[in-house]
TrEMBL record:
Highest taxon of source: Bacteria
Any one GO molecular-function label of the UniProt entry: ATP binding
Domain AAA+ ATPase, first and last residues per copy: 55-199
Protein name, entry field: AAA+ ATPase domain-containing protein
UniProt cross-references to InterPro entries, sorted A to Z: AAA+_ATPase, ATPase_AAA-3, CbbQ/NirQ/NorQ/GpvN, ChlI/MoxR_AAA_lid, P-loop_NTPase
Length: 341
């Protein structure tokens, strides 16, 4: 008779954890492939946008017209299984056009009463197209919903669907008739993602793929509830002490009162707060996960640094007059912070 000794509980737990990791990595690889079925090139933009979603935040996509920002949002919605909607922001857009409004209604018995009609914000993924073209009042209505996950109309509070994400867009080349977002509202976006023009070979592929009968299409990869599980996995990822120190060094070095570099007071008008560090760690975790790893590294912090800081700090008038580029300054600060961690 063979003596079958059961495996220790610790071994079972380790096997279960390994299986969970493998399954999560396979799932997120399928999501990336699903989005890639509709978007050619722009791997950095795709990764940063998916990292925003996985980290449970909101993203600001900045790019010229015609760079497939809408297609990207639609592809992410399809791949992740999220309901989505798009609102074109214009100067005459009212807050009620976003969050909804109450209307006077009459039931079958003739009794009258007010009924709340939900606005387009009641979806899982909202694309706010050219958000800076709406008035500050309308912008604030959306940004309040982003921050609180709910809207209040006539004293009544209505919870938004969970999960809830906003991917807003801005056109950097047409600023006439726009209302730039205040710094405090920009801070509510986890990342600001710059969408560049494609390189020549990618643009050639786009021309061939989009001018024939066979159109590009995203592929579904997640079922309802899968995204929440992936977000929980990302939140549970450990962060090494050296990576944490690197984030702290980076965020603190970008402030005007940087004790280690007195020149920062002449270069930076205002710097990032603690929310920037939170955003960098969340985004670095998500980026590592997208790359098939279960803990963020220095490379992940460096990859998300620009997107996490560029809308949370501003150059001084003197630095702008001297032609200093904010992105290049952030890159320099990243090298110093990672080198000293």
């Amino acid at each position: 008779m063979t003596d079958q000794t059961p495996a220790p509980a610790s071994d079972d737990a380790a096997t279960s954890a390994t299986q969970r990791i493998d399954q999560a990595l396979e799932t997120i690889a399928a999501v990336r492939a699903g989005v890639g079925g509709a978007i050619l090139g722009q791997e950095r933009v795709i990764d940063l946008t998916l990292a925003t979603i996985l980290a449970g935040g909101h993203g600001l996509l900045v790019g010229a017209p015609g760079l497939a920002k809408t297609s990207l949002v639609e592809a992410i919605a399809i791949a992740t299984g999220l309901d989505w909607g798009r609102v074109q922001f214009t100067p005459d857009l009212m807050p009620s056009d976003i969050v909804g409004s109450e209307i006077l209604d009459q039931d079958s018995t003739g009794k009258r009463g007010f009924r709340f009609v939900k606005g387009p914000v009641f979806t899982s993924l909202l694309m706010a197209d050219e958000i800076n073209r709406a008035s500050p009042r309308t912008q604030s209505a959306l940004l309040q919903a982003m921050q609180e996950g709910q809207v209040t109309v006539s004293g009544q509070t209505y919870a938004l669907p969970q999960p809830f994400f906003v991917l807003a867009t801005q056109n950097p080349i047409e600023q006439e008739g726009t209302y730039p977002l205040p710094e405090a509202q920009l801070d509510r976006f986890l990342l600001q993602i710059d969408v560049p023009f494609p390189d020549r070979e990618t643009e050639r592929q786009i021309l061939l793929a989009t001018t024939g009968n066979n159109q590009l299409a995203a592929r579904p990869a997640l079922k309802p509830g899968d995204l929440s599980a992936l977000q929980a996995f990302v939140r549970d990822m450990p962060v090494g002490e050296k990576v944490l120190d690197a984030v702290l060094n980076l965020v603190r070095s970008a402030r005007p009162d940087n004790a280690n570099d007195p020149n920062m007071a002449e270069l930076v008008a205002w710097g990032p707060g603690p929310r920037a560090g939170q955003a960098l760690i969340k985004a670095a975790k998500a980026r590592a996960f997208l790359r098939g790893r279960v803990s963020p590294s220095f490379d992940d912090v460096a990859a998300v640094a620009r997107a996490g800081l560029i809308h949370r700090m501003a150059l001084s008038w003197r630095a702008r007059a001297d032609g200093l580029d904010l992105g290049e300054l952030i890159d320099r600060l990243v090298q110093q912070a990672l080198g000293s961690a």
